[in-house]
Amino acid sequence: xxxxxxxxxxxxxxxxxxxxxxxxxxxxxxxxxxxxxxxxxxxxxxxxxxxxxxxxxxxxxxxxxxxxxxxxxxxxxxxxxxxxxxxxxxxxxxxxxxxxxxxxxxxxxxxxxxxxxxxxxxxxxxxxx
Length: 129
Description:
Elements (H helix, E strand, L loop, with lengths): L13 E9 L3 H11 L4 H9 L6 H17 L8 E19 L5 E17 L2 H5 L1
Antiparallel strand pairs: 1-3, 2-3
């Protein structure tokens, strides 16, 4: 006897991967997430592979995880996948202090982020549009 199983939040042609507490500000992570939004998965992987942003490696891992979830857990066709959603959320913020002149201190905030990537299988008619 346990809790009843939760209903699936996504549609049948979607899969998701979440990376939590990534050590980068949400604003910087959103720049990389916006780079792949709406693109085909193979194009998005190529863009992330050759991106010069430090965080693109973590975004690439999350995207590959979403593709693996789609293939293994939901039996979706990998070649027909598109990055449907890539959104960023705020996480914890570490607060640190930095010594300044005249005995003062200033606050340094080190933010963390969450990243969620949803991939969707599209039919060939939608790709042409």
